[in-house]
Amino acid sequence: MATEVDIANKALRMIGAREITGFDEENSEVARLVKTTYWDILDAALEAHSWNFAMRRETLAADTSAPEWEFTKQYTLPVKPHFCLRVVRVNNEDEGTGRWKVEGRKVVTRLGDSIEILYVERTTDSGNYSPLFIEALAAKLAAEWALPITGNQSITNTMTVLFRDKIAEARSMDSAVGIPDALNASEWLDARW
Question: How many angstroms from the chain centroid is the CA of residue 160?
Answer without folding.
Answer: 17
